[in-house]
Amino acid sequence: MRERLIRFRYRFWPDHIVGELLSKRWTETAVPMFFLIVTVAFFSLKIDNFISLNSIADTIRQSGEFGFVVLGMAMVLLAGGIDMSVGAMFGLSNLCALYCEQVLKWPVPLTVVSTLLVGSILGGINGVLIGYLRLRAFLTTLITLIIYFSLFDLLTLRFAVEIASFTPDSVVWDWIGNGDLMGVPSVGLVFGVMAIAGHIFLTRMSGGWHICAVGGSRRSTYNAGISVKRVVALTYVGSGALTALGSIFFAARLASAGSDTGRGLEVTILTAAVLGGIRLGGGKGSVAKAVLGLLIVMLITNGLLRLAVPGGPSRVILGTILLLAALIDIRWFKNRGKLIQEVYVSPTYVVMPPAPRTSRDSGSVYAVNDRLRDVELIGLGEVEAAEDVILDDADDLYCGSRHGDIIRFFGPDHVRKEVYAHIGGQPLGMAFDHDRNLYVCVGGMGLYRVTPQRQVEKATDETNRSLMSVIDDSRLRLADDLDIAPDGRIFFSEATVRYEIHDWHFDSLEGRGNGRIICFDPRTNETRTVLDNLVFPNGVCMDSQGHSIFFAETWLCRVRRYWFAGPKSGQVEDVISDLPGYPDNINRASDGNFWLAMLGMRGPAFDLAMRKPGFRIRMAKQLPKDEWLSPNINTGCVIKFNERGETLESLWDDGGLNHPMITSMREHRGYLYLGGLSNNRIGKYRLEGADPDFMQYRFAEGRREIA
């Protein structure tokens, strides 16, 4: 009963969903969105007609005017800086716009350009001091805040009367300040356009990428050849220009130069940016987050004003919100990775069948032997991580490399070699189609093909997304082996949708059904998932009739069969359910049976741990990764089985001297060629009594024949 309860709890309780949600980038936007909803709900209960058309229009107008300043502040924060002088720049720019329009009586376009130029110069002063002279951003902008406000006070005292004595008669100026289009204020329209442009700039253009890179790591950005000083300086110029743009709308709406214009604005703007999720340390943030933070702050400000809260307490409330937002920002980004690590790995309850005996005197077909100890070695020290090997009808041998290359050893002696193609990712499973295209599963990239002209082409890197999945499983993370049906369709396995190739041991610790079998049709370029909820599916091999595929589930130590054609279409059958180790690639043998690689042998400790998910959870939380219990991969083995699931023989390298981790094997002309993801060589083992003319792939008149 206890084991049944444990099985039920770890099967149906969605532990892994929590980790998935925390790892999503959109959850960072969901937090300010939640605060926005709470803010609206709170003030709606306290204030009658808090949400009305007039109220929304006023909020949009004010949000638009200050929103430009928030965008500028966000840009500075993303680059790892801070600008405390935005309030003073806003006041000076507002004064400049009013003086040009109401004293000098310049045309509106000239007024706008002049004001933007003034704002850019004010921001540029900060940029030169901080970017090129490398002064402290906070202290520098605090000093320029004092200087700019002093200048603002002097100019206001000098020109306030002249500005107030004239009201401009301009339709364009009036529309800028109080106009609308279909009920949407003009400033809201312009701000919307600028927000969209800002999003495109940050996410799709090199300038935005440079800003985020500088905020993420200035040293790395400098080493990449990007001018950090120039990028930092330009962010302050942009901040000044955007601040001036907001002040233009403010000046056109109020048409007066108040002595308190811009005072305390830096607290409001900084609160909006940080509350929205713009990271104080730089490198993290978005326009959407800045807009959400702006809306929250404006709603709080307007709500407090309508509740008749005095200005002093309002600023205290905003300051408190800023303090809390900064605290959350620092603590969250410092501990987010650690928290995700603790909850992301989510083991489940797995009962392994009893392992068959493998001792030398057991009399079992799996009994340990030394048949692979003295195999011939190919490319010793010249290849690295040859996970799969394959031969063509010219006896040329192909294998992958950890460096993202496919290496070809020329037959028949396989001494001379060349880089056949460079793919860029770790090549895993390989297969030829009828046009001599070499299809390759590439870890982290998807399914690729190398043409006979040695051109590398992407076949597919995504499939249909599961409708009920929290994980975005449309992207292919770990495609690892494949085979091709007689009609040209390619069936390949994706070991896990949660982890990358270098984190495979995380998936072994979970034991969940994170893998799937996918079908790609080159005739239509359609990719679809045909079988999911598999536990690290690996080797894929077509049966002799071309109606089904055999595939391995590594961490469950079993081989299964999926029928995609014929009377059993859609059915899945167990073939071998109690292997002594962890199966990998499957390939055909010359006698009509199948070879199966075993990348490691089972042990009682790990089998027992699979029944103790709580133990595995504590291990993942409390121990470093290199001390986790993981499957044994130190002993190589190859077995032969038939379609009825009967194991016929086994080949061992006891002690793992030549092949400590066998992940693939390929029979060709009486020899068995061995590959291993952790090996720096390829093994060649002579098979007694095997067909000396057997080749898995034969090409004749442009057609491929499957042995």
Break the fold down into its secondary structure elements and pairings.
Blueprint: H1 2-12, H2 15-23, H3 26-46, H4 53-78, H5 86-103, H6 108-132, H7 137-164, H8 171-178, E1 180-181, E2 184-185, H9 186-204, H10 206-216, H11 218-223, H12 228-254, H13 265-276, H14 287-306, H15 311-344, E3 376-378, E4 389-391, E5 397-400, E6 405-409, E7 417-422, E8 426-432, E9 438-443, E10 446-450, E11 456-460, E12 479-484, E13 490-494, H16 504-510, E14 515-521, E15 526-534, E16 537-542, E17 548-553, E18 558-563, E19 572-576, E20 581-588, E21 594-601, H17 604-609, H18 613-622, E22 636-641, E23 647-653, E24 664-668, E25 671-675, E26 682-686, E27 697-700, E28 703-706
Antiparallel strand pairs: 1-2, 3-26, 4-5, 5-6, 6-7, 8-9, 9-10, 10-11, 12-13, 13-14, 14-15, 16-17, 17-18, 18-19, 20-21, 21-22, 22-23, 24-25, 25-26, 27-28
Describe this structure in words.
With 707 residues, the chain is an alpha+beta fold. It has 2 domains: 13-341, ABC transporter involved in vitamin B12 uptake, BtuC, CATH 1.10.3470; 376-463 and 472-706, Neuraminidase. The chain has 18 helices and 28 strands. The strands form 8 sheets. Strands 3-26-25-24 form a 4-stranded antiparallel sheet, with no helix packed on it. Strands 4-5-6-7 form a 4-stranded antiparallel sheet, with no helix packed on it. Strands 8-9-10-11 form a 4-stranded antiparallel sheet, with no helix packed on it. α4 packs across α13 and α4 crosses α14. The chain is elongated, with a radius of gyration of 33 Å. The two termini are 50 Å apart. The model is unreliable at 700-704 (pLDDT under 50).
